[in-house]
């Protein structure tokens, strides 16, 4: 297991607190970053910090109570940081959900984030 870069730790900390972490979360993304996520049931691509934050804000409309994100594994491969995670919250079906984030950074900011979910 590779040590988790501070930017990745800060990303997950901001995600855990939801809307209150929005400003800190936005600061982690490059202005021209790309984010791909499956949370609406289909994979969607968001281009640019403003579009990414708009997508994040949709998720904050239904707050998840007592959210805790556990990093299960992290490794750096070919310039990307791959992080396997489990989100624990009684708001999720079965109380948890798991996935993988692939981060690419430039100058300390996220330039690309691709999220996939694991089947439970």
TrEMBL record:
Q: What Gene3D superfamilies does its record include? A: 3.10.450.50
Q: Where are the transmembrane segments?
A: none
Query: Which Pfam families does the record cross-reference, listed alphabetically?
Result: SnoaL_2 (PF12680)
Every copy of the SnoaL-like domain together lies at 23-111
| InterPro entries for the chain | NTF2-like_dom_sf, SnoaL-like
Q: Which domain of life is it from?
A: Bacteria
From the Swiss-Prot or TrEMBL record, give the protein name.
Answer: SnoaL-like domain-containing protein
Q: What is the lineage of its organism?
A: Bacteria, Pseudomonadati, Pseudomonadota, Alphaproteobacteria, Rhodobacterales
